Please model this.
Amino acid sequence: MTLKVKDTLHGFHIDRSVYVKELDSQAYEMTHVQSGARVLYIQNEDDNKVFSISFRTTPSDSTGVPHICEHSTLCGSRKFPLKEPFVELVKGSLNTFLNAMTFPDKTMYPVASRNAKDFHNLMDVYLDAVFFPNMLKDGQVLMQEGWHYEMDSPEAPLTYSGVVYNEMKGVFSSPDSLMERHVMENLFPDTTYGVESGGDPDDIPNLTQEAFTAFHKAYYHPSNSYIFLYGDLDVDGTLDFIDSEYLSKFHAAHIDSAIKRQACPGSCVRTYPYGIASGEKTQQKTLHSLTYVIDDALDTTLALAFKVLTYVLLQSPAAPLKKALVDAGVGRDVSGDFQDGILQPLWGISINGSDPDKQAKILPVVRQFLTKMVQEGVDKTLLTGALNRIEFTLREADFAGRPKGLIYGIRCMDTWLYDKDPLASLQYEDALQTLRRGIDSGYYESLIKKYILDNPYYALVTLVPEPGLTEKHDQAVADRLAAYKKTLSAEDIQQIVEASKALKKRQATPDSPEALLTIPTLSRDDLEHKAEEIEMQTSSESGITVCHVPDHTNGITYVNAYFDLHGFTPEEISYVYLLSDLLGDMDTKDHTYGELASLIDLYTGGIDCAVSAFSDCEDNGQYMPVFKVTAKALRQNMPELIRLMREITTETLFTNTERLIELVEETKAGWDMDAFRRGHTLVMHRVLSYVSPVEGFCDAGEFSYYEFISRIAAGIRTKTDDTIMKLQHVMKKVFTRAAMTLEITSDTEDYQQVIGLLPDWAQQLPQGEKRTDLCRLGGQRKNEGIMTSGKVQYVAKGGNFRSHGFVYTGSMMVLDTILQYGYLWTKIRVQGGAYGAFTRFYGNGDMVFCSYRDPNLESSVRAYDDLADYLEQFDVTDREMTKYVIGTLSRIDIPLTPSLRGDKAMNRYFSHMTQALVQQRRDQLLQTTAADIRALAPLVRAVMNDNCLCVMGGEGKIKDAAALFDNLISLPD
Model:
């Protein structure tokens, strides 16, 4: 349907119509006349339809009220009076995206679906949630999602609990989150950016029900809303529905949500402490951040220019400012970032693996280096390569399975929220031309001078580790609560106890059948019964197995090389993982690492290395370990791509010891920063490594790798020759023709081009031999408690059901949905206050449960152990069972980009997953009944009785539960 400018359709005035060539789409800007709502519709043939409604939300304190509102609006509404309609949608929708997000100055509610009926249902529930939520009248919503006092009995200690409260305790357990908090409060002391929209755990308990509801009433009005529509949808019916059901109930109003611009407060240098575990070493664990406010970066060309400069100066392997800072001894891990999506965007340098006394060096090094660069000019090759890389990413528009419309909707808000053109962030062609001309005109040098060297608006913030600080803080909170409890009367205390009990009763009480019927859903007849087939042709070329996945790729060819890692020892595997971190960042026979990085940026969309493993789909004792080299390029650059892949895999040198030391120490510093934030991933692999060969291999690249790289980094300066020798050994052993399988995703013509170029690479590889011995790692139950300074836990329990004689069925995919959004959602998140929980059931028999940002430990373990009892009694209506089946299918049937299609084909290839088996498991999924779920209770009970447990979390919490563990360990120094 074509809309005409100045027409009015269902109350929406068509203000503007623009063709956006970058998206091959027609865009319409509209205003809903009666309510004042703004609308942007991107019309095209994409069947993955997107709807989003966003609000400008500008908090004045750090109680986290925008974040808690985001959670709470989805806890029941006028038309959908359930406790959590969001969860019911996840269970019973074919959505391709369903979530809500809080930003520093906005809150977004996006949904996506390829099914028109489902898309309509999702819009209906979300619109009712934001405009008519039950949170306005039900005080227990704030208690659950935000915070509440908790006491099980009058004698029990008084504590805080709540989903967001515990989530933010987890967030601020990571020092980089603390750093961001301190940077923002110093740069923006007088505006909304100076407070924490997500909530500071010290401030969240100051939020009252009155302030909570007042915030919603102030900001959740159509006149303060931004509605985004995308894709091949019935725009006439959609606008009619939005108007008649929702916007027609409101009248335009003045909403004071304007974001105040911060006047430059001058530069500042600040130092703060952060907590590490008692006994943990403090050396080289200081963080620094130097951040500049780029006041004019709402100009999308300027923003793109700063992304180019950030990559050139700080992100590329050849980044010269990063090298200058590392060479000056300021820190081991230096990175950069340009943060847009706020009114006054930021450009910053982050330095990890440092010490407090290095703070004084940072500004002089940065200023001296950039002054010289402005005088001599930015390296034109680096600029061209960075611009090529960014342009490739923009044109490829591969968002790793996320709907394109979702990403475009978020990008639009980068300008729309500040009363600028919402399409400006999508239209990049003119900006790219300007930036290319700027390479030779001094444009980038002028930006560095104006926005960095001559800019007084910056903050240099340092975080210094302090052992035991977290425990001191927790004790202070406990003491404060104990002191407050002493001021309460017996009646006051009893009220808190009763309120805690009432909340738990509400949480444990299922929604009524009548309430559940209000949530619209599909039927099993609406579902696609045939499993998607991925065409793949296999042949032998130049003595190498080649797999071709035909697809329309818009001129991009994806080339993935897999090298079989059978025959490697456990020690060698550790060095193989290290090799994957180094390749592409070291010198080669023909190029320095800087020259190599420039060539990769000039001619490709990226070349990356990784180690992974594919478990046999039905045999828990077999797996395929591989070293994977992934690459992509436009067809005209394919000769250069193959040449670079050959050069990296056959001619990499490790003789630049200074570079090797730098990369090893940078990797270690990166792990120090990321380990706790990735705690759920680490403990899930770790606990399964106790029983699973493939997970033992994977753990060698996770927590065991953190231990390994810590040992290597500690001795790298004295044992460099030994490290080089071992890297050379494993590199020679990895890259052979006998071990190589090549996968190409492209159209037929481009496939033939790669085949014609393959001999140039293959002939440089030694033949090698086909190895069959499989590396056996792990296999010993350790039951570890990994102690940190964190304020929350990641609690994982798992094992292997095939070892107990059970087999995998498609019903386990449905069980995964039931547990994540039923039993574990209630036990771990709603009642326990954790952010959430994961479940995994794999075809090889591995299964694991894991909580995420969990304030508890022992009660979560009990929830896992009680799960089999729950399954034995599992009984739901046919309608509810159908919802679980639909929700499961939505997670399986995600639209595949060409690169994802190639990855999925190779996963099936290496795991021996036939199309017949894929279809069989899909049939089992679609036919799953409540009886099938009950039948899985013995399987779950058997694995839980194996008692394989791994937890990462707070030192005190783990020591209190020491009886659960065989080993208490700390993070590596």
Summary: The longest strand covers residues 623-634. Residues 823 and 870 are 8 Å apart (CA to CA). The chain has a mean pLDDT of 96.
